[in-house]
């Protein structure tokens, strides 16, 4: 996503940008289905070292990246915030929650307070940072007082959804960006 501002302003640019996640998507599927084997890839991207794990979280991640590239592109804060919440917020929630998350949430023993707090804080700051970055390139212009409030609401909504005990049914790499997209669409509009 951070490379989007350097693409041309042509309508095709978004599809060209989506090509890289598409190639990664194909790679994850072929290795996840064991058509090819790469232990280094599997160990670096999965939690338990099983190739089929590539067909869940990592695959959903690149599909969401492709979707945001094509649908929202660099013209909308909705895609930027959604990807920042997924990569920055959920990414740091996982890392810090696993490392320091001894105190679990009362309604979801799989999630911790530190993970949820990290989700909110890092998702918020990654989103604000990326919005500022895109604004500096002139991709869109924001009323920053309202944008900060809106991003705080998106961060809160994504944090609440990420904390729910639904990971058996829906992966965080789907629920977090979808919640972010819906909330940001309602708050930012079609900007």
UniProtKB/TrEMBL annotation:
Primary localization class, coarse: plastid
Family: Belongs to the polyprenol kinase family.
One of the record's GO cellular component terms: chloroplast membrane
A biological process term (GO) from this entry: vitamin E biosynthetic process
Highest taxon above the source species: Eukaryota
GO terms assigned for molecular function: phytol kinase activity
Name of protein: phytol kinase
Membrane topology term: Multi-pass membrane protein
Membrane-spanning ranges: 15-33, 113-134
Catalytic reaction(s) noted: phytol + CTP = phytyl phosphate + CDP + H(+)
PANTHER family, per the entry: DOLICHOL KINASE (PTHR32523:SF8), PHYTOL KINASE 1, CHLOROPLASTIC (PTHR32523)
């Amino acid at each position: 996503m951070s490379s989007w501002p350097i693409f041309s302003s042509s309508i095709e640019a978004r599809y060209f940008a989506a090509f890289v996640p598409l190639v990664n998507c194909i790679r994850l599927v072929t290795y996840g289905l064991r058509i090819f084997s790469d232990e280094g890839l599997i160990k670096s991207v999965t939690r338990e070292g099983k190739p089929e794990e590539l067909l869940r979280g990592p695959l959903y991640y690149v599909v969401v990246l492709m979707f945001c590239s094509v649908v929202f592109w660099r013209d909308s804060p909705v895609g930027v915030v959604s990807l920042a919440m997924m990569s920055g917020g959920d990414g740091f929630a996982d890392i810090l929650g696993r490392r320091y998350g001894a105190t679990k949430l009362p309604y979801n023993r799989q999630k911790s307070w530190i993970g949820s707090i990290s989700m909110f804080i890092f998702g918020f700051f990654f989103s604000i940072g990326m919005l500022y970055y895109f604004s500096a390139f002139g991709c869109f212009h924001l009323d920053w007082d309202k944008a900060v409030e809106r991003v705080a609401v998106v961060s809160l909504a994504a944090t609440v959804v990420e904390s729910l005990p639904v990971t058996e049914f829906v992966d965080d790499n789907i629920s977090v960006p979808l919640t972010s997209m819906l909330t940001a669409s309602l708050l930012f509009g079609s900007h």
